[in-house]
Design a protein that fits this description.
The protein is mainly beta. It has helices spanning about 5-30, 85, 105-115; strands spanning about 130-135, 140, 165-170, 175, 195-205, 210-220, 230-235, 240-250, 255-270, 275, 280-285, 290-295, 300-320, 330-350, 355-375, 380-405, 410-440, 440-455, 480-490. The protein contains three helices and 19 strands.
């Protein structure tokens, strides 16, 4: 052997010994029995199926420096058939086709690996990925999307929950005591919405005294027993179509509403003189003036027209009253605001002797307060409805009287005007039945009355010097409208 061959053999032997020394040192520090090793011994007879949630780790070599182990991602909760596989993260599911030989040795090795492995075992699986976990790592139900919630209710909706038995969630939706959303009409107290409606009114005006004319009849001709009977004829008003419109904005807890009322009606009365009234056997007719019509066949016509405009600006507040929750019991709003009123009336009288025109008007404004409530009927979409309000109107009353008497050369015109301050009380009451075809729409029908005290009249205050005097027609100071109403309201 040459010198070069000897040198090569010595170098090869030295490299081999060095490599074996390094491998022995690595195996002592990072091998399967080392303290810092991330590699675990697995028997050659063992057959493990890989886990879905843990990446495979190499078993034939060690990595230096060792990499930090990653925590496996959470997976869905185990089913009843995965109890054995979920008890330890290194075991395969029962559904695996791996052989079951040497199961005792496999369990023993798994227990040793679990004691040596510092990583926590994954105990629960969570599906879907959007599910939330509680403090114990258990899956929590997903929150109900807002799109599944019921639509908003109206400001005075009978289906709206109220009272201490109903609570509200963080987003303002009504909740029952058990934490469930109220059925049908789930109310959102913080949601701003608009409500509007129209009301058809079929009303008839009435006065405490509203005489149009009077007739006087004489019985017996030239006899001392003859008597004269006087009969007052009142205006006979019919039911007339009127309307009320309103619009408001706010939340279920309250809002602002604007309203307009229009009420009007007309009536006409007439009478004809007959017989020989001057001779003691006949009928005479008299209007608001002092002139008496005694010519047989002469006719007196009197027409009355009433016109009322009301403007309301109200602030509504919801009252929290005891109820059974979710639409049961009373749902009440109280209101306060301002009412502006304009009440006007004209009387026109025509006869062969003269023409009389009388006008009375009152314009005023004042505070208004009231209540509106629904009472649900057996948890259905029907409810009773009641509304009551009162106002005190302060304003100006104006009256005018004009009488024209035809003459041979010229007509004689007599005028008289008045102007005075008045305080007019106003009261309203409505009773009815409501039906909610949807959560945002309601239909209400019932009976109502609206009354005004000392607003208008054709007595002396109106400028007529003879109105309401002995033998002359006159009008009392109380005006009211009563009849039926049908209301439709919708919120959006």
């Amino acid at each position: 052997m040459t010198n070069w061959a000897r040198v090569a053999a010595l170098v090869a032997a030295g490299v081999t010994l060095g490599t074996m020394s390094l491998r022995a040192a690595d195996r002592a520090a990072y091998g399967p029995t080392g303290d810092a090793s991330q590699v675990k011994l697995i028997s050659a007879n063992e057959d493990f199926s890989p886990r879905d949630d843990v990446a495979p780790e190499p078993t034939n070599s060690a990595t230096y420096p060792p990499k930090k182990a990653k925590r496996p991602a959470a997976k869905p909760a185990p089913s009843s058939t995965d109890a054995d596989s979920d008890a330890d993260p290194t075991l395969a599911p029962k559904s695996s086709t791996a052989p079951r030989a040497n199961s005792a040795a496999r369990r023993s090795s798994a227990q040793q690996l679990a004691q040596a492995d510092p990583r926590p075992a994954v105990r629960h699986r969570v599906t879907p990925a959007s599910a939330r976990l509680n403090a114990d790592g258990e899956a929590m139900p997903a929150p109900t999307p807002k799109s599944a919630m019921a639509p908003k209710s109206t400001m005075s909706q009978p289906m709206t929950p109220s009272g201490p038995s109903s609570e509200y969630s963080s987003d303002g939706h009504a909740m029952m005591e058990g934490g469930e959303s109220c059925p049908d009409c789930d109310s959102c107290v913080n949601c701003i919405h608009w409500c509007g409606g129209v009301e058809y009114l079929l009303l008839k005006p009435r006065f405490s005294n509203d005489s149009a004319l009077s007739t006087s009849t004489v019985g017996g001709v030239g006899t001392p027993t003859s008597t004269t009977a006087t009969n007052n004829v009142d205006f006979q008003y019919d039911y007339n179509s009127d309307y009320h419109v309103f619009v408001g904005v706010g939340t279920q807890a309250g809002g602002v509403r604007f309203g307009y009322w229009r009420m009007q009606d007309s009536a006409n009365e007439s009478a004809t003189a007959s017989g020989n009234f001057a001779g003691g056997a006949g009928t005479a007719v008299q209007g608001v003036s002092t002139s008496q019509i005694i010519i047989p066949g002469s006719t007196l016509n009197v027409t009355s027209h009433i016109h009322v405009d009301l403007y309301d600006i109200d602030r509504l507040q919801h009252l929290e009253l005891p109820s059974a929750g979710c639409g049961a019991g009373w749902d009440v709003n109280w209101l306060y605001g301002v009412r502006i009123g304009n009440v006007h009336r004209t009387i026109d009288e025509f006869d062969p002797i003269e023409t009389v025109n009388i006008g009375s008007s009152f314009v005023g404004a004042g505070p208004r307060i009231g209540l509106e409530g629904h009472r649900n009927l057996g948890g259905s979409r029907f409810s009773t409805f009641v509304s009551a309000d009162a106002a005190l109107l302060v304003g100006t009353f104006k009256g005018s009287f004009r009488r024209t008497t035809p003459g041979l050369l010229q007509d004689t015109v007599e005028t008289n005007d008045t102007n005075q301050e008045r305080v007019v009380p106003n009261f309203g009451l409505s009773l009815g039945l409501s039906w909610n075809p949807t959560c945002n729409t309601s239909l209400t029908a019932g009976y109502m009355v609206e009354a005004f005290g000392d607003a208008i009249g054709n007595n002396g205050a109106s400028g007529c010097p003879t109105c309401g005097t002995q033998g002359n027609p006159g009008t009392g100071n109380i005006l009211s409208f009563d009849g039926i109403f049908v209301r439709m309201q919708h919120c959006f």
